[in-house]
Amino acid sequence: MTTSAEPTRSLVDPPPVAPEPAPAGTYTFVVVSNRLPVDYEEAEDGAITWRTSPGGLVTALEPLMRSSHGAWVGWPGVAARDFEPFENDGISLVPVRLDEADIEDYYEGFSNDTLWPLYHDVIAPPSFHRETWEAYITVNRRFAAAAAAVAAPGATVWVHDYQLQLVPRMLREARPDLVIGFFNHIPFPPYGIYAQLPWRKQILHGLLGADVIGFQRSADAGNFSQAVRRLYGYPTRGVVIDVPTSETGQNGDSRRVIAKHFPISIDSAGYEELARRPDIQARARQIREDLGNPKTLMLGVDRLDYTKGIGHRIKAFGELLADGRLSVEDVTLVQVASPSRERVSTYMALRDEIELAVGRLNGDFSTISHIAISYHHHSYPREEMVAMYLAADVMLVTALRDGMNLVAKEYVAARFDVDGVLVLSEFAGAADELKQAILINPHDIDGTKDAIVRAIEMPKRERTRRMRSLRRKVAENDVAVWSASFLRALTGGAAVPAGIPDDLDLALQSIAGAENLLIALDFDGTLAPHVDHPEDARAIAGNREAVQALLDLPGVRVALVSGRALVSLQHVAQPQSSVLLTGSHGIEVQLDTPEIELNLLSTELEQLDTLARVLESISGGIAGTTIERKPAGMALHTRLATDEDGERAERQAREQLGDQLPGLTVREGKNVLEFSVRSSTKGDALKKLRDYTGADRVFYAGDDVTDEDAFGALRDDDLGLKIGQGATLANYRVRSPHEVTQVLVRIAELRAAQAG
């Protein structure tokens, strides 16, 4: 690890932000990334053309960019040149200028010589230099200014990757009207590693300017939240972080930031379409023939990067040949190592190391007619890569640390013949989804060798079973699903149509077939419309019959998960005796018994008395406010108050209770502010219900911000349903409680039909 002198700014100081509010532009959707999705080409006569770069991100966002009047902000790939905004293939592009010094210090320096190795578990030592950090700030400010200048009032801005981590905060300061998302395409390290960064707080401060921060893996999101807790002390609940709206945090107001994993994917249909082309299939056969038609062709496709484990792969293969477990006459390894960051000294040394290892292995084991490793240090067009995927019997992905690794998914998508074996590092994000691959620890050379032999010797029937499962996973979660899920969480859907959307109906067909299904439902705003007086709430017509139809089916449990006290919930919901109940955000539980579980300590009872005295005093002096008593807390309702009086009541409650009972749990809902002496969430309640019922899949429906804790507790194969507008972690959305009843009826119909 190398370092220059200590940084000039204190670590507690936030990074510089755009100093002046920026005027609004015209684009309602803006993507910001280091590179524009085009490649620059200049003919001999000086004519300039732009060619669309192949890539999953472009494929996913292209339709949205066209339909929503979108713009893409980024560097065009040409140093020290100014380009005016232009349109290419129907997409508006806004170039940001980078000079040679910017490329050296911001990109090759701080981004790739500091952040990249640090975020990849310090496989190579990062360097910390004040000059490159200053360049990083300067260039981030340039990108933020360009995005702010073109974004329309209230626009959605989606910022991408580790090179631009300060942009979200800079945008928020310049344009507080914007909806801002950020997606980190590489890992986010554990706190013990992240803490080495001298500018660790400034980076977090920059990222927390976003409304939604996306990561490849759940562990990455957890690492980020832990860093926020350790360095800033902000409250975190699952995937939710409460960020103060003022620098001091003294006024009690906060923004809710979502930090969650959204695993990226590929255009799976596009890869399969290429693989089915006769010319590409012929090319796959030609590749095998050119290599001497080995019995087994293994393939590795990587950028030449120290995170990819290429050396470990070559070492394992060489030892298998030396041990006699494989022979060069039967097995050939094709290694594609695309050039990467060739001006960075670490990468120059890596290339020498890999090519020396390849040369030695080929010298030791190749024959006149058979080569051990066919090594290629250049990139190939997508068509050639798909032909290689079709030709390869075994795909080796041995990354030491990888945010996702889309090559693994590309291989699976191309194998329409349902053959081939994927050997996949457990340290690649793809391992979370592609569990039917042979998973390895690439640091374990003996284990990697055994996995390679197992892949080569795997019977056809097992290969087919595994590949069919892998292909289903990749097809169901392609890049369009990824982008849609992120943007659903970010934008909240301005207009929600009536009825059950087609994509929701498909998801219901899947979840209805679960062996043990838990249907968990919020009540107010979900089964019943919101009313002025909470005691008047009732479920809409047909709801009770829909719930009963579900209860009559084997393997189905139904539960109500409410913020209400259970006595109140039983009064308004009048649930069937077999419906499981949780109230007060999981503090009260009633599970197949008449007893309600709740044990308050004497100190908590004393806090309740103080809470009641303060809130009754406030409510008694402000018209339109009411108090709802709960077993472990109280709620201040402001639905009937004017906006000004409601805000005043909530402000007084926060201030007075913050002084007298600083340890209270505070939840903000729709025209309600709730204080609890015991910390629990609907997410906690849902986990308890899952454990109790043994459900293998869960359906949860809710409408309030408190329901986001439950959505955050869902697993990848569960189904979350948001009722109405607003940012959400739920997979799907419907307009009102009427649609919820339709959904419950549909689940019952589908499950009954599948059982029949």
From TrEMBL:
SUPFAM superfamilies: HAD-like, UDP-Glycosyltransferase/glycogen phosphorylase. It comes from Cryobacterium lyxosi. It comes from the Bacteria. Residues 1-24 are annotated as: Disordered. It catalyses: D-glucose 6-phosphate + UDP-alpha-D-glucose = alpha,alpha-trehalose 6-phosphate + UDP + H(+). Gene3D superfamilies: Glycogen Phosphorylase B, HAD superfamily/HAD-like, Trehalose-6-phosphate phosphatase related protein, domain 2. The keyword ATP-binding does not apply. GO terms for molecular function: alpha,alpha-trehalose-phosphate synthase (UDP-forming) activity; phosphatase activity. This is Alpha,alpha-trehalose-phosphate synthase. InterPro entries: Glyco_trans_20, HAD-like_sf, HAD-SF_hydro_IIB, HAD_sf, Trehalose_OtsA, Trehalose_PPase. Keywords: Glycosyltransferase, Transferase. NCBIfam families: HAD-SF-IIB, PRK14501.1, T6PP, trehalose_OtsA. Residues 13-22 have a biased composition (Pro residues). In the C-terminal section; belongs to the trehalose phosphatase family. Belongs to the glycosyltransferase 20 family. Its EC number is 2.4.1.15. Pathway: Glycan biosynthesis; trehalose biosynthesis. GO terms for biological process: trehalose biosynthetic process. It is an enzyme of class 2 (transferase). The keyword Glycosyltransferase applies.
